[in-house]
Amino acid sequence: ELKVEQNPLFLSMQEGKNYTIYCNYSTTSDRLYWYRQDPGKSLESLFVLLSNGAVKQEGRLMASLDTKARLSTLHITAAVHDLSATYFCAFSNTGNQFYFGTGTSLTVIP
Amino acid sequence: DTGVSQDPRHKITKRGQNVTFRCDPISEHNRLYWYRQTLGQGPEFLTYFQNEAQLEKSRLLSDRFSAERPKGSFSTLEIQRTEQGDSAMYLCASSRTVSEDIQYFGAGTRLSVL
C-alpha cells in the first residue's frame, strides 16, 4: 500500500524554538514535496527534493531527504507566528500519482 | 490573475443530483490534476491529465466521477448521482512537464451534498 505518514499531527511550539516534522513514505520515489496550507486556503508549494541527501532552505524552513530511509524532514528554526499553518509532505510514483500525508498542524504561540 | 482558477467556489446540492466543476490551469501548464480533500486530511489524488489525455485515475474513484480536458486547456469534473459522502473540497492543480513537476493549486470548489 502506498502511504505517507507524518508526525507529529499536531504541533504547538513557542516562538523562537526549533522543531522538526517527519515524513515517512512507503515506496521508492524520485520526488518528495512539502506544501503549506493556511486555514481556508489552498496549498502552496514550499520545496521539492529530487535526490538522496537533498537539502533546501527558505527562510526559517529547511527540508531534507533520505531516500534510503524513505524519510524527509522539515526543520523549523526560531519559529515565528507567521509559520502557523498545516504542512503536508507528498511523494509521486512513476505513474504520476501523488500521495499526500495527513498533514502537521503547526501553531506557534508567543 | 494568472494562477489556477476554479469555478464555482461553493456548491450546495441535493443528494442524487449531478454537479460539474471547472478548472482553468495556468496557461503554459500541460499537466492537470484533480484532488479531493476532506477536513483534517491531505489531498487525495483523483485523476491526472497530460494535455488532453487522461493518463491516471485513482482506483478509489467511483464510476460516478468523470473528468475531461478537451483541447488540453480547461478541465471539468462531473459527479453524477451525488451522495453525502461526496461532500469535500475538490482541488485542481497544474504543472509543467519538467523534472520538478511543482504543482500549483487552485482555491478549490467546496461541495456540500444535503
The global form of chain B is: globular
Can you summarize the main beta sheet of chain A?
Answer: 6 strands, mixed
Q: SS-based structural class of chain A?
A: mainly beta
Distance between the termini of chain A: 40 Å
Q: State Rg of chain A.
A: 13 Å
Describe this structure in words.
- The complex is a heterodimer of chains A (110) and B (114).
- With 110 residues, chain A is an all-beta fold.
- Chain A is built from no helices and 11 strands.
- In chain A, a hairpin with a 2-residue loop joins strand 6 (55-58) and strand 7 (61-66).
- The model of chain A has no long low-confidence stretch (mean pLDDT 92).
- Chain B is built from no helices and 11 strands.
- By secondary structure, chain B is mainly beta.
- In chain B, the strands form 2 sheets. In chain B, strands 2, 4, 5, 6, 9, 10 and 11 form a 7-stranded mixed β-sheet that branches. In chain B, strands 1-3-8-7 form a 4-stranded antiparallel β-sheet, with no helix packed on it.
- The relative contact order of chain B is 0.33.
- Chain A binds chain B through residues 4, 31, 33, 41-45, 48, 50, 88, 90, 92, 95-103, and chain B through 31, 33, 35, 40-45, 48, 50, 55-56, 58, 91, 93, 99-108.
Which terms summarize this structure?
heterodimer; A: 110 residues; mainly beta; 11 strands; B: 114 residues; seven-stranded mixed beta sheet; four-stranded antiparallel beta sheet; 0% helix
